[in-house]
Amino acid sequence: MAAKYNLFKNPPKGNKSEQETFHARIVPGRTIQTEQIARELATMSSVSTGDVISVLDNLSYMISVHLKEGNIVNLDKIGHFSISVSCPKQLTGDRKIRSASVRFKKVNFRCANELKQKFVSMTMKREPSGNENPLTPQQRQQRILDFLAKETSITSTQCITLNGCTRYAAIKDLKTLTEASKIKRLGVAKSIIYILP
User: Fold this and answer.
1) 129 inside domain
2) Residue 128 covered by a domain
3) Do the Cβ atoms of 53 and 35 come closer than 8 Å?
4) Of 60, 135, 159, 177, which is least surrounded by CB within 10 A?
């Protein structure tokens, strides 16, 4: 099965006479949950779906244990995980930074080369736009809610692809839905996701 993509206009760089340029983005498909992965792995081995779920749950726990100790966790043929931290930007000297000021920022993931190679022969298929007329804010927001009715979460990048809109419009739609208590925002910085309340 092919991955679907669509083309989006690049924002102008100031010179309006320049020819329009485009970039391609993947159109988000379904969100594959742990249970489906577990069922698929179970068919490839002699262990049950329940055993696979238990192993994945324990793997998640052990990754968090080692990352909390400042270690890097490397999973062969998958990639390695590490932690990023942040501290207040207004501090000017290293002696002014206390341990309490340094906080968890995000989990970094670097894909293993073996896994990257599996995508070299990836099949792509262009997703037809269907409607060339831009969606109204209300239509975009309803599409976000419809997406969340089927999937567990959505990101601003997924909203851009879902509605064929700019990042500014996607963030504005998400903010409107959040302020109306129709969705809930979780995470910080580049790790922000939105879920149904």
Assistant:
1) no
2) no
3) yes
4) 60
pLDDT of residue 17: 62
Please count the residues of the chain.
Answer: 197
- In the block, which residue shows the tokens 């599996």? 118
Rounded Cα gap, residues 195 and 145, in angstroms:
9
For residue 136, pLDDT beyond 70: yes
Domain interval for residue 182 = 135-193
What pLDDT, on a 0 to 100 scale, did the predictor assign at position 21? Answer: 81
- Residue among 183, 157, 174 at smallest CA distance from 27: 157
SS3 158: helix
Taking the C-alpha atoms of residue 59 and residue 71, their distance in angstroms, rounded to an integer, is 15
For the chain, how many structural domains are there in total? Answer: 2
30 and 117 fall within a common domain: yes
Task: Please tell me whether the overall predicted TM-score, pTM, comes out greater than 0.85 for this model.
Answer: no
Show the tokens assigned to 3.
């991955």
**Residue linked to tokens 């949950």:** 33
